[in-house]
Each structure stands twice: as structure tokens, then as C-alpha cells.
Specification:
Strand order of the largest sheet: 6-7-8-3-9-10
Distance between the termini: 44 Å
Order of helices and strands: EEEHEEHEHHHEHEHEEHHHH
Number of strands: 10
Radius of gyration: 21 Å
Structural class: alpha/beta
Oligomer: single chain
Bound molecules: adenosine-5'-diphosphate
Length: about 290
């Protein structure tokens, strides 16, 4: 499903002394099947923007269209429901006595019959890479990474076409982080889902998405490929962000190894670049 945002402005507490313009005339087009990252410092408007994608917030002015349909008009609920939003620390919303009940919660709210509900719970559980033995457990018995996956399953069970994840790996250890990203990339690749990732980790964005939106003071400052964005280190720094750490390391090494290409943004790319350099300088013993 595609998302189009047109002239979107959002003001919190409008008309009070506390009013705050969180989005300022944002325009944006996300195509069906894209995987896209949104970065920006705290308070730049990322969460406010994504909460418009499923109608959780209504524009102060402007519009949001999903597959060409304006989601603010009456009767658009069915289309809004196709956008699944996974909030930060979604496992904080697990409260049922079993994993099964937690995953099935949204289906129950939508009045889906038990038999259908059962097969959808099993499918969602598989999609997040968990086994059925977990279904009768209390969510509180699970590891942090498992809880997060159960919470994501509770959204997937609603069969969204667009998945929006706000800081999906916050608070997880490196293994849990890798697992969540391979899950997300699998959903994008195998199910053709449109995926929107909000993150403050430049490493996660550089490694996992093709296109990046940079937000600053309620506006989209840049909309481009990960390469275009991360090459622009000075601009990122001027708005309180940075390039991935590996890019700074490569810039430092450039002084010692002038021939290397320092414009790499992931550890994998850096490894390849250094191998290439070492092979050239020291022959082929550098594997
Ligand atoms: P981000 O997700 O990039 O951290 P937010 O979208 O949460 O940014 O916030 C954008 C701006 O809106 C910030 O200045 C924030 O303080 C303000 N804001 C966010 N939520 C509320 C709210 N519920 N009431 C008032 N102001 C808010």
C-alpha cells in the first residue's frame, strides 16, 4: 500500500498558551513495498508523523492518503486498519495471562470468530519465529526479545499491509536486535509489506533501509538514499544527528591510508573496503 502525505501540519493543544507545531507542512510519498527509515533528534516530529498514517492523530491541516483514499473521511476505517503501528516498547502493553490471549486480543476486539482467530494467531507466531509451545506461557516468563516478538505478532495477526515501527529494537541486546531486524526484513521481502522504521540509531538505519527521511523541527529536511543522507555528515551534525560510528572510524583511517574510500556506512562495507586496501598494499595474504 502507498502512503501520501499532503501539506500536513499538526499542532498540539492548539489555541492554548501551550500550543506546539509538531509538523509543519510536510509532503511525502511512500510507495507500496518500500522499506524506509525516519531519523531526527528527539522532538523533531517523527512519532507525530507516523501516528497520522493510521489516523491515530488527525491533521490540523492537510491530508493523508492511503492507496489514494483520504483517511480522514468517514468510512475510511477499513483502510486505516491496514496500517499496523508498533509503538516503542510494545511489550509494555502485554497484559493477558497467556501469550495466546495477548496475540489474539486485537482479533477479539474486531469480532473475529474463534476458529479463524486461532489459525491467524498461529500464522503470526510463525511469522515472528516463535514456536507453539510458547502460547500457554505467561508473557512475563519470556525474554525481552521474545516479548517484543509476541507484541509484534499481536499487530501482524491483524494482517496489516503497512508496518510502522517506532524504535523497534530499543532496549534489546545485540542478539535480540539482530533477530528483530531479520524479522522485519523478512516481512518486507517475503510478504511485500511496506515498512517504515523510526530509529535514532544511525547504524540500524544504514544497515536496514534503502531510503531515509531526516526530520528537523517538524519538517522533512532530507528525503534520499541512505548514502545521500550519510554522506552529508556536516548537515546531520548541525541538526543534532551523526553519521554511523563506522564512518568516523573510516574517516580517521583515511589519514593513515589515503587510498581507502571513507564513505562507507556499515561495518560490512568497511570490512570489504579494508580488505581491498590490505590486499593491494600487502599482497593476497590478508584474508
Ligand atoms: P519525536 O518522535 O521526533 O521525538 P514527537 O513527534 O514526539 O517527536 O514530538 C514533536 C513535538 O511535539 C515535540 O516538541 C514534543 O514536545 C511535542 N509533543 C509531542 N507529543 C505531545 C503532546 N501529547 N502534547 C504536547 N506536545 C507534544
Amino acid at each position: 500500500m502507498s502512503i501520501q502525505v499532503k501539506d500536513l501540519t499538526y499542532i498540539y493543544m492548539k489555541g492554548t498558551p501551550f500550543e506546539k507545531k509538531a509538523l509543519d507542512n510536510v509532503n511525502l510519498q511512500i510507495e507500496d513495498g518500500e522499506i524506509i527509515g525516519i531519523i531526527g533528534h528527539t522532538g523533531s516530529g517523527k512519532s507525530t508523523l507516523v501516528q497520522h498514517f493510521n489516523g491515530l492523530l488527525k491533521p490540523t491541516s492537510g491530508s493523508v492518503f492511503i492507496d489514494g483514499a483520504d483517511i480522514s473521511i468517514k468510512g475510511s476505517e477499513a483502510i486505516r486498519r491496514r496500517v499496523g503501528l508498533v509503538f516503542q516498547y510494545p511489550e509494555h502493553q502485554l497484559f493477558e495471562e497467556s501469550v495466546y490471549k495477548d496475540i489474539a486480543f486485537g482479533l477479539q476486539k474486531r469480532g473475529i470468530l474463534k476458529e479463524e482467530s486461532h489459525s491467524r494467531v498461529i500464522e503470526a507466531l510463525r511469522a515472528v519465529g516463535l514456536g507453539e509451545e510458547i502460547l500457554d506461557k505467561s508473557p512475563f516468563e519470556l525474554s525481552g526479545g521474545q516479548k517484543r516478538r509476541v507484541a509484534i505478532a499481536g499487530i501482524l495477526v491483524l494482517e496489516p499491509s503497512v508496518l510502522v515501527l517506532d524504535e523497534p529494537t530499543a532496549g534489546l541486546d545485540p542478539k535480540g536486535r539482530d533477530e528483530i531486524f531479520s524479522l522485519i526484513k523478512g516481512l518486507h521481502r517475503d510478504k511485500g509489506m511496506t515498512v517504515i522504521l523510526v530509529s535514532h540509531s544511525m547504524e540500524d538505519i544504514a544497515e536496514n533501509v534503502d531510503r531515509v527521511l531526516v526530520m528537523n523541527s517538524g519538517k522533512i529536511q532530507i528525503d534520499g538514499s541512505a548514502r545521500t543522507v550519510f554522506e552529508n555528515t556536516e548537515m546531520l551534525e548541525s541538526i543534532g544527528l551523526s553519521a554511523p560510528q563506522i564512518t568516523y572510524l573510516m574517516k580517521g583511517l583515511k589519514h593513515l591510508m589515503p587510498e581507502i574510500n571513507e564513505k562507507v556506512f556499515t561495518v560490512r562495507e568497511a570490512k570489504e573496503e579494508l580488505k581491498k586496501y590490505l590486499k593491494k598494499s600487502w599482497g593476497d595474504n590478508s584474508k
